[in-house]
Amino acid sequence: MNGIALKPGQVDVSHGPILYLEDVSVSFDGFKALNNLSLYIDAGELRCLIGPNGAGKTTLMDVITGKTRPDTGSVFFGQTIDLLQMDEPAIAQAGICRKFQKPSVFDMLSVFENLELALATDKGAWATLFAKLNGAQRDRIEQVLETIGLVELRSQPAGILSHGQKQWLEIGMLLMQEPKVMLVDEPIAGMTHQEVERTAELLLSLQGERSIVVVEHDMEFVRSIAKHVTVLHEGSVLTEGSMDEVQNDPRVIQVYLGD
Ligand SMILES: Nc1ncnc2c1ncn2[C@@H]1O[C@H](COP(=O)(O)OP(=O)(O)OP(=O)(O)O)[C@@H](O)[C@H]1O
């Protein structure tokens, strides 16, 4: 250890990575969806995960968020927090959140209220909506509205938003909880070209303060955001590197062409 005392809830990233997965295997009826997979995600980085269908990307996300328990291996959040000892809500509470492909905003509530709801704690959703916001909470919502580019639509019901805008609102709802790691599953599916560009800007603006792991099939999009790409194949890491490096790797070309 480096001698720095950590407060409860703090994540020890003093060695660089915020997520450590080592020798993780997951079997479904004898089939290895993850096979001795090891992966490290640095604090503040934006990582893209690619790989052909069935490579294990979703299973990997499920392991990190506690939905699926590995048969073997270790999964740590920072150097000291053992995620395999925690259930799904505890992992989310610790600061690892996941954005699923399909947006699930509340159509009848305004954009602002959706963000307000994301503040919901143990008091419950309705109590949160009717409670008076304090200054810090109001400032946080304003900041998030700015980040997701929905300031002007703040009073509109979420139901009138375009598909892309709903996705950004949902990212905003996750940001309200100030996660340290965001796992983002196929963020641009169904978006217009303009929305795709705006989503790239948004994800790029989020790195640094938090780590972002994006699973995406669209290679053009991956190229536009990724400094570092991990290629999964048959439940293991096939290779890692810049987009150019992985795209020119004969093993990557082979698994994609063979798909
Ligand atoms: N609950 C399950 N029961 C049985 N097999 C499963 C289960 N979940 C996943 N698998 C299998 O494990 C393998 C990895 O699946 P996974 O969904 O993680 O891949 P993926 O890389 O996310 O694929 P895609 O890009 O198609 O979403 C696949 O062969 C899949 O059929």
Automatic annotation (TrEMBL):
GO terms for molecular function: ATP binding; ATP hydrolysis activity. The keyword Nucleotide-binding applies. Keywords: ATP-binding, Nucleotide-binding, Transport. Residues 19-259 form the ABC transporter domain. Gene3D superfamilies: P-loop containing nucleotide triphosphate hydrolases (3.40.50.300). Pfam families: ABC_tran, BCA_ABC_TP_C. The keyword Hydrolase does not apply. GO terms for cellular component: plasma membrane. InterPro entries: ABC_AA/LPS_Transport (IPR051120), ABC_transporter-like_ATP-bd (IPR003439), ABC_transptr_urea_ATP-bd_UrtD (IPR017781), BCA_ABC_TP_C (IPR032823), P-loop_NTPase (IPR027417). This is Urea transport system ATP-binding protein. It comes from Methylobacter tundripaludum.
